[in-house]
Amino acid sequence: MRRILPALVALLVGLVVLLDYFLENPVLDALGSFLLEGAIILAAFALLLGLWNLLLVHERKVRRRERGWPASIVILLSTLGGLAVGLAGWRSGALDWFYRYVLFPLEASTGALLAFVVVSAAVRLWRLGSLEGTVMLVVGAIVLAGTLLPQGGALGVLTPLREWIVSVPALAAVRGILLGVALGIMATGLRVLLWIDRPYE
Amino acid sequence: MDLLRLLWETTSITPEGLTALAGLLAFAALILALTLRASRVGPFAVRPLAAAERVRGVLGRAMETGEPLHVALGIGGIGDVSTADTLAGLSLVSFLADRGALAEVPVRVRLAQPTALVGAIAVLQRGAEVTGYPEAYEPTQAAFVAPVPLAYAAGTAEALRLEPPAANAMVGAFGAEVLLPAQAGREQPQMVQVGGTSDPSTLPLLFAMTEAPLLGEEVYALGAAFGRADHTGSLAAQDVFRALVAFGIVLGAVLALVIA
Amino acid sequence: MIFCQACGTTNREGSRFCNQCGARLSETADIACPRCGAPNAPDAPHCQKCGLDLARGRNDVWEGPLPRVEVPEEGTPEAPEQPRRRPEGVPLRRRPHGLPPWLDSAEQPEEASSELEAGALLPGEGELALERDEGEWSGEAIPIEPVVGVPYRARERPEQPPTPEEQKAADLFAAVSAEDVFASLQPGAEEEQSERAGRPETWLRVLVALTLLVAVIVPVLLRGGPLSAEGSVPAPVAAAARAIQQVPPGATVLVAFEYDAGLAGDLQPVAEAVIGEFLSRDLHILTVSTQPEGAALAEMALERVLRARGDAGARSRVVNLGYLTGGQAAIRALAVSIPSVIRSDWEGRPLAGNPAVAGLGGAGTLPLVVVLGRDLLAVQAWIEQLGAPFNTPLVAGVPALVEPALVPYQTAGRLQGVVGGLAGAAAFERLAGRPGVGVRSLAAVRAGAWAAGLLAITANIGFALGRLLRRRGP
Fold first, then answer.
1. CA neighbours closer than 13 Å in the CB half-sphere of residue B244
2. A112 shares a domain with A70
3. What is the ipTM score, two decimals?
4. A69-126: per-residue pLDDT in tens?
5. Looking at the DSSP assignment, which residues form a beta bridge with residue C344?
6. Contact A33 C262 (CB under 8 A)
7. A56 vs B139: CB contact, 8 Å cut-off?
8. Of the candidates B134, B149, B226, which has its C-beta nearest C374's C-beta?
9. Are residues A104 and A78 in the same domain?
10. Per the domain annotation, does A190 fall within a domain?
């Protein structure tokens, strides 16, 4: 019973939501909406679990003086501080100020780092020593040239070439990947529904 | 009977919905049939995945050096659009959890969604219990870093620098932020780095930064690559359907040309 | 075998001189028994020690019984190390793999054995002791005898020339062992090691950082310059603008903020351009997010647009529904009915009585939904839960990196248009006739793209040339 009950619940819930997606029926619609709203509430409570795990991991790091423990102190203080400010006055401007003037600039700066890392990876493409790296470099150069260079004269051929690359081989590759991914997602979901995978046990 | 009749009369379905449902049922039946065959007769042959072979290889090294193994599950969770990617990452965690518990190799999992955290804790705990070494599981093996992608990536990158593992596997839903932990991994020359995601726009980044990328649907073949006989059944079903779709596309293109 | 009478060394039959001392071997020297090696007279019919028939031949197989093998008892120093065993009282649990219970007709044992898949054992571990039924062992010698015989001392083989394969292998070994082992210490070797390690050299990292910085800052300081010249409007952006123009005035539209602050540089200009266009067409706007930061980003975008328009009264036409947990489940629930999922806005004000949401059903009934997504998955979720089942027109705003991945959805009609990154925002602003952040930043974006492209191409060509020169040698 201990093993059958979770499997049964997973199967029934999955079937109801799946059938609700395809069929129009008032009972199914009501059940499906109820289950979806339950999922929303569960996800919100899962955030609390995430918070507990965060505090546990970093508290242990500080207690054991593991490498990088000063950063863990900062994380603990900022998490608890943000939580306290949010709970005390979540409609006040304090949280908003914290987001706009601390979190937002920090994240935007980290996002800017991505540009640097992308270029660092691009300058090493040929060092991969593979045909794929060379193709990536050449195609990237053509697409960039087709986008940035003026379209007249001898360079006029680059823009149609760029358009062709984006709308034929790149599109075909993306479609192929998405097709395979879609089948993979379906198979993963069906394995759970058919009890072949039982991650809840 | 009256209830069934009432249900029948109040239920409707669009033609597209009917086609999709029929296709889904056919796919489910094929998965069942091929999984039965794989479990009873023998698994289907699976071509080796470079990432899976690398992970197996580095496992032996980790046993000797005592270095941990690291899995980054990405920014997806369970119950959202990236559930399948996260489950694929968890199949890798499951493989490593068993062997890590047996061989006393620590397995660290970092994730960005609490729903994925629940799954990771369950998998790690079960791996330790099933192999008979429940004391091998620690609650801090799975670490929730941050729900925001860039913060997650930065936190994971820093963790890789502070405690370099023998291998870093980034399998799950990732965007461009995967570059940050990937760059941190590349700075450790002895670290084996593999990665995979289903997002086509992230694949070129993983290709440039990892030793063995998993491209698109290869992520979902990890379970089969690690020896799950039942997963080879669903993989074979995917192959059949993919062949059918490809045949349909080619046929449609030829017909369109002929008619035009 | 012949014994040398001077030093006693055994020599091959037919030898005339001793291999050891060089003494001439007598034809009457003793011969060694092929089995036990004892010296015997050359004409002895049987060995004086073991009785072998010397006249019959030299290739007889050992025929006697083998000596019994004594295996050390458990507990002695030679006993093998005991395998790791499951601690007492720890139950085994069945792995939930394989066939589902409703298909598997085999009985499920209470305590099933562990099911590590075939071929997946740890290297060097051998089989798990958990499953082995270690029976009792009496400690006696193994009561078997091998079926193969043990040949007596082997003969020396006549020298044979190597086969071509053996010669090839020997030549290769000689070539490899003659290689210069100090080649790795040559100049340039460190660079190669660094390349393999994946660490870009410090000077290259500094060059990349400085180049990008200069490329982006200079156009900002020059307030544009030649790089801010207008280009053609991409077709997906034009399609997005057309989709927005088809929305009847006074209708309600939804804008989903599905990105975080890290991508705000790419997507906030898109958000501001789209919201500005909605406000200019007197539409009611709902904003929602299934990402934690989306609600705050929506507020920031709204404030900037209202400040730029100088029209504070337009704020009453905008409702920020805030952050909704649950991912796809939340999107689906919103598609069915907004009021049943969200009862108050982001600031806690009840939605009932708000003219922007009066009479509103689900998001599936809206004339247009704009999804500002950080990646393909974010847009895919809205297409799958809202666009496809309810046929709701969708327009996507995504970073430039993600734009190519959405082309299949556009051609399939699931997306009415795509605005990609800062360049897309600039094109949209030009179409709408309201230049904003996108147009002002276009020059910096183009300069950065130029710098990145030229740097990547130059560095790779330089690396290839350097490697070619190193291979040719000094």
1. 11
2. no
3. 0.86
4. 999 999 999 999 888 888 887 666 778 888 889 889 999 998 888 888 888 888 777 6
5. C350
6. no
7. yes
8. B149
9. no
10. no
Within 8 A of A118 by CB-CB distance, chain C residues are 452
- A 45-74: CB under 8 A from B: 46-51, 53-54, 56-57, 60, 66-68, 71
A193:B28 CB<8 A: yes
pLDDT of residue A128: 63
| C229-275 per-position pLDDT tens digit | 667 788 899 999 999 999 998 899 999 999 999 899 899 999 999 99
| Domain extent for A18 | 1-88
Using alpha carbons only, give the angle B67, B70, B73 rounded to the nearest 5 degrees: 175
Q: Do residue A123 and residue C325 have CB atoms under 8 angstroms apart? A: no
Q: How many CB pairs under 8 A join A and C?
A: 148
Q: Which residues of C touch B76 (CB under 8 A)?
A: 377
In a domain, A195, yes or no: no
Structure tokens at A133: 């790296």
Q: Which residues of B touch C118 (CB under 8 A)?
A: 227, 229
Which chain A residue shows the shortest CA-CA distance from C447?
A148
Domain co-membership, A6 together with A72 = yes
Question: Is B222 at the interface with chain C, CB within 8 A?
Answer: no
Rounded to a whole number of angstroms, the distance from the CA of C123 to the nearest CA of chain B is: 7
Would you call B10 and A26 a contact, using CB atoms and an 8 Å cutoff? yes
- Closest residue in B to C198 (Cα) is B186
- ∠ CA A75-A78-A81, rounded to 5°: 145
**Which amino acid does the sequence have at C356?**
A
Residue A97 placed within a domain? yes
The answer to whether the predicted template modeling score (pTM) of the entire model surpasses 0.95 is no
Q: Are residues A3 and A74 in the same domain?
A: yes
Question: A36 vs C459: CB contact, 8 Å cut-off?
Answer: no
Distance separating alpha carbons of residues A31 and A48, to the nearest angstrom: 26
Distances (CA, A) of B159 to A66, A138, B115, B142, C199: 11, 35, 21, 13, 18
Strand partners, C318: C285
Q: How far apart are CA B230 and CA B233, in angstroms?
A: 5
Alpha helix (H) ranges present in C264-396? 264-280, 294-309, 328-336, 338-341, 376-382, 388-390
What pLDDT score was predicted for residue C88?
A: 57
> Are A107 and A65 in a shared domain?
no
Are residues B162 and A96 in contact, defined by beta-carbon separation less than 8 angstroms? no
Taking CB atoms and an 8 Å limit, are C261 and A170 in contact across chains?
A: no
Contact B158 A174 (CB under 8 A): no
Q: Which amino acid makes up residue C124?
A: G
Residue finishing a domain among A44, A67, A88:
A88
Domains: count for chain A: 2
Residues of A within 8 A of C341 (CB-CB) are 37, 40
Lowest-pLDDT range, C149-158, C305-314, C395-404, C463-472?
C149-158
Domain-located, residue A35: yes
Contact C369, C256 (CB under 8 A): yes
**Last residue of a domain, which of A88, A116, A135?**
A88
Backbone angles phi, psi at C397, to 5 degrees: -120, 120
Q: How far is C400 from chain B (nearest CA, A)?
A: 10
Token pair 């062709």 is found at A164
Q: Return the number of other C-beta atoms located less than 10 Å from residue A61's C-beta.
A: 22
Residues with Cβ within 8 Å of residue C291, at least 6 apart in sequence = C257, C258, C259, C260, C323, C374, C378
How distant is the Cα of B10 from the closest Cα of chain A, in angstroms? 6
CA atoms within 13 A on the CB side of A190: 27
> Tokens at residue C52, please?
């072998």
Matching residue, tokens 């919201």: C275
My answer on whether A99 and A75 are in the same domain is: no
Nearest CA in chain C to A195: C100
Amino acid sitting at position A25: N
Q: Are residue A111 and residue A157 in the same domain, yes or no? A: yes
> Residues A83, A104: one domain?
no
